Amino acid sequence: MPDMTLWKLIKELKGPRYTWVDLTHELSPQTPHWFGFKPLQADLLFDYLPDTDKDKLAPMRCFQYSVASQYGTHVDVPRHFFKDGRSMEEITVQEMMYPLVVIDKSAECAANPDFMLTIKDIENWEKIYGRIPENAFVAFRSDWHKKINLEFPDENGVPHYPGWDVEAITWLVKKRNIGAIGHEPADTDPGFVTTREDAYPYPGEQRILHLDHIQIEVLRNLDQVPPVGSIIVCAFPRLKDGTGFPARCFAICLVD
Length: 256
What we know:
- The radius of gyration is 20 Å and the shape is globular.
- 38% of the residues are buried.
- The chain has a 9-stranded mixed β-sheet, covered by helices on one side.
- The two termini are 36 Å apart.
- Helix 4 (166-176) packs parallel to helix 6 (203-210).
- It has a single domain, classed as Glucose Oxidase, domain 1.
- The protein has 6 helices and 13 strands.
- By secondary structure, it is an alpha/beta fold.
């Protein structure tokens, strides 16, 4: 008799004990994205026939899309910053699903848009929820997805949004052996770090990718996911030599 365990598991996960949370922004010209990218463009290639031609076989509707590789909710892979790093076709399917840890610093980010998530913040989180498991996806909740403008530049053009401290990223990889990180803004590093003339450009983003891990940027709805106990699935194309691409991410959570 064939083993139907996995089929039963799917049925259970889609049942009333679990809720599925979409962590992805929809793709459109209005999608939140890094300020240096143009909005998505869609060119109609083929379209349905008019109603007056119903007696004919209607052709399909198809578009040709033009979009930056790191647009909207997207994955960054090591090749994004490092020419010898793994590109998208080298990311395994096992790297698309993880135990999900959500560190909520939304109140702190509301009070301080330059908030930086540190090792101390993570250690304090662990005192409440326990040790972060190996191969976890650690998501930094800031509630930044609720904002129309992701960057908030001041009168001097300096953007303000929260991000990771580079040493916190190193600590998570070295001390907790995590699988990936994610966040709601369009950058790993806080805005004031990315614009400092005396700083290494994008140090946090470079660190996670240099350590051969992926990250997901411009997440949403982390406020609908508990701190522990959920799983996250992050799907994206197997693009040859790809440095990143819009991704579809969702969490499966136990209902309280």
